[in-house]
Amino acid sequence: MKNCDDRPGSTSSNSLVRRLFIQYFEKMRKGEYLGNFDLMALLAVLRLGEDAYGVTIARELGEQTSREVVVASVYATLERLEERGLVTSSLGESTPERGGRAKRYFRITGAGIREVRDTRRSLMNLWKGLPELKGDHA
After folding, report:
1. For the segment 49-92, what is each residue's pLDDT rounded down to a tens digit?
2. pTM for the full predicted model
3. What is the mean pLDDT of residues 93-122?
4. Which residues contact 91 (CB under 8 A, 6 or more apart)?
5. Per-residue three-class SS string for the chain
6. 38 pLDDT exceeds 70?
7. Is the pLDDT confidence value at 111 over 60?
8. d(Cα 24, Cα 77) in Å, to the nearest integer?
9. What span, in angstroms and rounded, lies between the C-alpha atoms of 1 and 42?
10. Closest Cα to residue 90, out of 50, 43, 38?
């Protein structure tokens, strides 16, 4: 039997949402939580697997979000994620099409997967019980 204080919109439920939001905001402020673009970049790296390099990641993000994505912003984000240990990179073979330059491939790390899962869990908790976000009305 569900406690009536756990109902969406109840004081207890609102208090929990408020507390989770404050925790999320504090971690965001300190740079500990993933930003929106960071999360999308990690998801694109996961989706692309062995074919995850700057251009394909930017293309995937553009296709999935219907937004224009600048490759330079993808590389800046990936470098930041690599510094945090959430992705690793390696150079592929050089190719004549690229003027002898090698592609830099990215892979998500175990820490990156944990961070994606934690972020998903936090966002789902924040979404719970918000009538404005139920269904396709928002």
Report:
1. 999 999 999 999 999 999 999 999 999 999 999 999 999 999 98
2. 0.71
3. 88
4. 102, 103, 104, 105
5. CCCHHHCCCCHHHHHHHHHHHHHHHHHHHCCCCCCHHHHHHHHHHHHHHHHCEHHHHHHHHHHHHCCCCCHHHHHHHHHHHHHCCCEEEEEEEECHHHCCCEEEEEEECHHHHHHHHHHHHHHHHHHCCCHHHCCCCC
6. yes
7. yes
8. 20
9. 39
10. 50
Phi-psi region of 21 (alpha: psi -120 to 50; beta: other; left: phi over 0): alpha
Report all structural domains of the chain as residue ranges with CATH numbers, in order of start: 35-126 (1.10.10.10)
**Per DSSP, what are the bridge partners of residue 107?**
88
CB of 37 within 8 A of CB of 73? Answer: yes
Please calculate the CA angle 124-127-130 and round it to the nearest 5 degrees.
Answer: 155
Rounded to an integer, what distance in angstroms lies between the CA atom of residue 112 and that of residue 108?
6
**What is the structure's pLDDT at 34?**
82
Give the chain's length: 138
User: Cα(first)–Cα(last) distance of the chain, in Å?
Assistant: 30
